[in-house]
Design a protein that fits this description.
Elements (H helix, E strand, L loop, with lengths): L1 H7 L15 E9 L9 E6 L2 H10 L5 E6 L16 E12 L5 E19 L2 E9 L8 H20 L17 H11 L4 H9 L3 H52 L10 H11 L4 H16 L5 H15 L12 H11 L4 H16 L7 E5 L6 H12 L3 E5 L7 H4 L12 H9 L5 E5 L12 H8 L8 E2 L6 E2 L5 E6 L7 H4 L3 E4 L5 H19 L7 E3 L1 H10 L7 H20 L5 E3 L4 H5 L16 E8 L2 E13 L4 E4 L4 H16 L10 H4 E6 L13 H13 L7 E3 L2 E2 L5 E2 L4 H10 L4 E5 L11 H6 L1 E5 L6 H4 L9 E8 L8 E6 L9 H4 L1
Parallel strand pairs: 1-3, 7-12, 7-13, 8-9, 9-12, 14-15, 16-20, 18-19, 20-23, 23-24
Antiparallel strand pairs: 1-6, 2-5, 3-4, 4-5, 5-6, 10-11, 16-17, 17-19, 21-22, 24-25, 25-26
Length: 832
C-alpha cells in the first residue's frame, strides 16, 4: 500500500495556500526524553529534573503554554537547547500533580507544531522564541481518502498483533478524515523510538506525513509477524516437553503399582499418613495435615510446591503436641538451686517458690508470665536460666533486641519463598516439649516499622486466656502454649507498650550494693574466672579489702559485668606470672591493684563543701543511679534565665517552676524582690554530653538558686531528689533505691527525699539505711536549713524536719536548731 501512496503523486498544488503570517511567541522550553508530542493529542509524562520542573512552573505565567521539544540523545541528563531537535509542539498544560519523591506528573495537550529560534536561560530554565507552523489541509480526493483508510486499517492490524497498544485506541481513528490528524494519532500510539517519530513531527505536508506512517506500520507488522512465528515454535517445543514429562509421570505411577518401587518399606506418602494417625491431637489438626498430604500426593515430580509441603509436614509432625517434661515441685531442692546460683534477689526467688507451691496444690495451674526489670548486669538472664534448672524445665531463649518484623514472632505465610515459623514455635520445636521456660530477652528493645509491630504479635502469646490456641502464620494450626512459663527481661518498663506490660507481672531487680557485689564476686565470679584460666584456689587469692577497692575504683555499674572483666584481668596477669616462674602463688592486696589493673578508673566524687550555688542531686538511669550536680551563677542583667547541660523539656519546666516559687517567697527568704529584674540566672548541669530530663531535679535546682541568691553555702555531704511545684510542694519520685545507692557511693551522709516516698524506704538495702540519714519533706520550706547553712548569716532560725536517722527505726519529728535568714543586701555575685 505504501507503493500505492507514492503512485498517488499528490502535489503541493493540491494544498490551499496559507496566507496567514507566521506567529512568534516566547515560551518556556521543556526537553522530552524518549517521546514526542503531537498536535491535538494528550500526553501524560513525569518530570524530575529541576530545569524541567522550573519550566512547568513558569508555564503558568505564559497562559499555561509550554514548548515541548525532544532531545536527540536520550541518555543526556542536562541537555542544552542545541542538543534538541529544532521542531517541537506548543502545548497547553492541562494538569500538574506532584508525586512522592519530588517529581511532577504533567498532562498536556498539543496545539500546533513550532520551530525553535532564539533561546535564553532564565531563573533555572530556558526560554525559546517559537514560530508556529500552521497546518496545511489538502483537498480530499478519492485516492487520498483511500490512502487514509488504508493507514487506519494497517493500524488496526498492528494493534491486534501488539501486546502494548490497546485495541480500543483504534476506534477514534475511523471517525477521522484529515490525513494529517490520522498520521499524528497513529504516531502518538505506535510503540516507536523517538528518532522514528521525530520525522513524522517535522513533516509539515500531511500527505508526506501519511506516507511515512504507512511505511512504518508496514514494517512493524512484518516484524511482529516474525515474532509471533518464533513464539509459536517455542510454544510447540514446550508443549512437547510437557507431554514427555506427563508420560514419564504416568510411567512412574505404573511402575509403583507393579511393585518396582518402594521395595524397602512404605512410600513417603504412607509414612506421613502413619505418623498423622499416631498423633493425639484435635480433629482440626488431623484434617488439615491429611489435606496437605493429599496435596503432596497430587504434585508431579520436580514441582517446587513438593518441597514446600514436605517441609511443612515435617515441622508439624516434629512439634511436641503432647510431649512435656516432668516438673520439679520439691521446694527445698528448688530453693537450694536458686541460692547456689545467685546471691540475694530475694523477691525473684520468693515468686518462683510461690509458683511451685501453687503447682503442688493445683497441678493444672496455667503458666506464668514474669517480667524482670533492672539495669544491665544485675543477672536477669542468668536468673531465668536458674529458674529453668530449679523447675526442671527446658529453657528456650529468644532474643528480641532489634526485632522489627512481626513475622519474626508469628512466622511467614507458606506462600512466601523461604517461609518459616515464628521464633516462639521454632523455640518450642527446638526444645522438644510444650511446657518449656521461654525466656524473651530484651523485650523493651522491640521495634516497629512498615513490616508490623512485633509487640502486638506477642499479646496473644503472653495472654493466659488466649495462648492455649496460639496460631502461627506458618503453622496455621492452634498450638497450646498455656503450660509454658514465660519470663521476659527489660532494662526499663517505660519503653514496653502498655497492653503488653499489662499481661506481665513485673519484678524489679535493682542495683547491687558494694557488699552484695563482694559476696557475688567471692561466691561466683572469682571461682568462675579461676576455672576459666586454669588456676587453683591456692594460686590466686584476693582479699576483701582488695575486692572492695576493685569495686569502688575500677568499676562503676549497677551489675557485675565490669567487675567480672576486672577479675578476669587479674587472673590473666596471675597466670602470666606463674608461667614465667616469677611466683608460685599470688595474694592480691589493694596496693597491687594499680600494677594489675592499671590506673584507678574512678575516684570518689569531690564533696561540695561550703560552696554557694552548687548542689548535688540524684538521678536514675537505665544503668542504675547516679549523682547530678547543679551549678547556679547570678550576675547583673535583665532577668534572663539561661539553662544549659543538654536538658529536656520537663527539666526546663522544673527550673522555671523553681524560679517562680523563689520569686513568690522572696520576702521570706530575704532575697531582693526585684532580683528577677536586675539579675540574670544561669543554671548549668555538668556533663553536657549526656541528655538529661525528668522532674526529680526540681528541689535540687531550687536549693541551688536560693543558695546563689542568698549567699548561704550548701551543707557538706547532702544530696536530694524530688519534684517541686509552684507552691513549693515536694512530690513523689521513682528509682529511690538506685538513687540512694548512688548517694552512698558518692560519700553522702544526708539524703532529702519527698515525704510520699517514705514507704519506699522499706525496699532500700539495710547497708544503705545504716550509712545514710534520710530527711523527708512535704514542702521545700521545711528542709531549707537541712540543705543550706544559714549560720554564716548570724541570725537564729528554727525549722522542723522529718528525719530518719541511721540509729532509729522509727520516724520521729525532730527540731533542728538553725538560723533565721536576716534581710539580705545585694547577692554576693552581683557585688562582684
Amino acid at each position: 500500500m505504501s507503493e500505492e501512496i507514492k503512485d498517488v503523486n499528490l502535489s503541493a498544488g493540491d494544498l490551499p495556500m496559507d496566507t496567514a503570517a507566521p506567529r512568534y511567541e516566547k515560551l518556556p522550553l521543556l526537553a522530552l526524553r524518549g517521546m514526542c508530542a503531537f498536535p491535538g493529542m494528550l500526553l501524560n509524562f513525569e518530570v524530575e529534573r529541576d530545569i524541567s520542573t522550573a519550566a512547568l512552573d513558569a508555564a503558568v505565567e505564559y497562559g499555561r503554554r509550554v514548548l515541548l521539544i525532544t532531545q536527540r540523545d536520550f541518555m543526556k541528563e542536562s541537555p542544552r537547547p542545541e542538543d534538541l531537535y529544532k521542531i517541537g509542539t506548543v502545548c497547553n498544560v492541562k494538569q500538574l500533580l506532584k508525586v512522592p519523591g519530588g517529581g511532577i506528573k504533567a498532562l498536556v495537550e498539543g496545539i500546533t507544531r513550532a520551530r525553535m529560534h532564539e533561546h535564553s536561560s532564565e531563573n533555572g530554565y530556558y526560554m525559546a522564541r517559537a514560530e508556529a507552523l500552521p497546518e496545511k489541509t489538502p483537498r480530499m480526493t478519492a485516492k487520498l481518502e483511500a490512502a487514509t483508510r488504508h493507514a487506519a486499517g494497517l493500524f488496526d492490524t498492528y494493534a491486534s498483533m501488539s501486546s502494548v497498544v490497546p485495541h480500543e485506541s483504534v476506534f477514534p481513528l475511523y471517525g477521522m478524515t484529515d490525513p494529517g490528524k490520522v498520521a499524528d494519532y497513529i504516531a502518538q500510539y505506535m510503540f516507536l523510538r523517538h528518532d522514528q517519530k521525530q520525522p513524522i513531527l517535522e513533516a509539515l505536508n500531511p500527505i508526506k506525513r501519511l506516507k511515512l506512517i504507512t511505511a512504518l506500520l508496514t514494517h512493524e507488522i512484518e516484524v511482529q509477524g516474525v515474532e509471533i512465528e518464533i513464539e509459536g515454535n517455542l510454544r510447540s517445543r514446550l508443549e512437547g516437553q510437557q507431554r514427555e514429562h506427563i508420560l514419564r509421570e504416568r510411567m512412574n505411577i505404573i511402575q509403583h503399582e507393579l511393585g518396582e518401587e518402594g521395595e524397602g518399606g512404605e512410600g513417603e506418602i504412607s509414612e506421613y499418613r502413619r505418623k498423622i494417625a499416631k498423633l493425639k491431637v484435635s480433629e482440626e489438626i488431623v484434617t488439615k495435615l491429611n489435606k496437605e498430604v493429599d496435596r503432596l500426593e497430587k504434585q508431579h515430580f520436580g514441582a517446587a510446591e513438593t518441597s514446600v509441603i514436605a517441609t511443612y509436614l515435617d515441622l508439624c509432625l516434629e512439634l511436641p503436641w503432647n510431649k512435656t517434661t516432668t516438673e520439679r515441685r520439691d521446694i527445698s531442692s528448688a530453693t537450694k538451686i536458686l541460692n547456689d546460683d545467685h546471691f540475694g534477689l530475694e523477691k525473684v526467688k520468693e515468686r518462683i517458690l510461690e509458683f511451685l507451691s501453687v503447682k503442688q496444690m493445683k497441678p493444672d495451674h496455667k503458666g506464668t508470665i514474669i517480667c524482670l526489670v533492672g539495669p544491665p548486669g544485675v543477672g536477669k538472664t542468668s536468673v531465668a536460666i536458674s529458674v529453668a534448672r530449679a523447675l526442671n524445665r527446658k529453657l528456650a531463649r529468644i532474643s528480641l533486641g532489634g526485632v522489627h518484623d512481626e513475622a519474626e514472632i508469628r512466622g511467614h505465610r507458606k506462600t512466601y519463598v523461604g517461609a518459616m515459623p515464628g521464633r516462639i514455635i521454632d523455640a518450642v520445636n527446638r526444645v522438644g516439649t510444650r511446657n518449656p521456660l521461654i525466656l524473651l530477652d530484651e523485650i523493651d528493645k522491640l521495634g516497629s516499622d512498615y513490616r508490623g509491630d512485633p509487640s502486638a504479635a506477642l499479646l496473644e502469646a503472653l495472654d493466659p486466656e488466649q495462648n492455649y490456641a496460639f496460631r502461627d502464620h506458618y503453622l496455621e494450626l492452634p498450638f497450646d502454649l498455656s503450660e509454658a512459663m514465660f519470663i521476659t527481661t527489660a532494662n526499663s518498663a517505660s519503653s514496653i507498650p502498655r497492653p503488653l506490660l499489662d499481661r506481665m507481672e513485673v519484678i524489679e531487680m535493682s542495683s547491687y550494693t558494694d557488699m552484695e557485689k563482694l559476696e557475688i564476686a567471692k561466691r561466683h565470679l572469682l571461682p568462675k574466672q579461676r576455672k576459666k584460666h586454669g588456676l587453683k584456689v591456692a594460686q590466686l587469692k584476693i582479699s576483701d579489702a582488695a575486692m572492695l577497692e576493685i569495686i569502688s575504683g575500677w568499676t562503676r555499674e549497677s551489675g557485675v559485668r565490669q567487675l567480672e572483666r576486672s577479675l578476669a584481668s587479674v587472673c590473666r596477669k596471675t597466670t602470666a606470672r606463674l608461667a614465667r616462674g616469677e611466683a608460685k602463688s599470688v595474694a592480691v592486696t589493694p596496693e597491687m591493684l594499680p600494677e594489675l589493673l592499671g590506673p584507678r578508673h574512678y575516684t570518689r566524687e569531690n564533696d561540695i563543701d561550703g560552696e554557694v550555688g552548687v548542689v548535688r542531686g540524684l538521678a536514675w538511669t537505665e544503668a542504675g543511679g547516679t549523682t547530678l550536680d547543679v551549678e547556679v551563677n547570678v550576675f547583673p542583667g535583665k532577668g534572663m534565665l539561661k539553662l544549659t547541660g543538654n536538658l529536656g523539656e520537663t527539666m526546663k519546666e522544673s527550673a522555671e517552676a523553681a524560679v517562680s516559687y523563689i520569686r513568690s517567697r522572696a520576702d521570706i527568704l530575704h532575697i531582693p524582690a526585684d532580683f528577677h529584674k536586675k539579675n540574670d540566672l544561669h543554671i548549668h548541669f555538668p556533663g553536657g554530653g549526656v541528655e538529661k530530663d525528668g522532674p526529680s531535679a526540681g528541689i535540687t535546682m531550687a536549693m541551688a538558686v536560693i543558695s546563689a541568691l542568698s549567699g548561704a553555702p550548701v551543707r557538706p555531704r547532702v544530696t536530694m531528689t524530688g519534684e517541686i511545684t509552684l507552691r513549693g510542694r515536694i512530690l513523689r519520685i521513682g528509682g529511690l533505691k538506685e538513687k540512694t545507692m548512688a548517694a552512698l557511693r558518692a560519700g553522702a551522709e544526708t539524703v532529702i527525699i519527698p515525704a510520699e516516698n517514705e514507704s519506699d524506704l522499706e525496699e532500700i538495702d539495710q547497708t544503705v539505711r545504716r550509712e545514710l540519714t534520710f530527711v523527708t519533706a512535704k514542702n521545700i520550706d521545711t528542709v531549707l536549713d537541712v540543705a543550706l547553712d544559714f549560720s554564716v548569716l548570724k541570725a537564729p532560725r528554727m525549722t522542723k524536719a522529718h528525719a530518719i536517722t541511721p540509729a532509729t527505726a522509727e520516724l520521729p519529728v525532730i527540731d533542728v536548731p538553725q538560723q533565721q535568714i536576716p534581710p539580705r543586701p545585694e547577692p554576693p555575685s552581683v557585688r562582684q
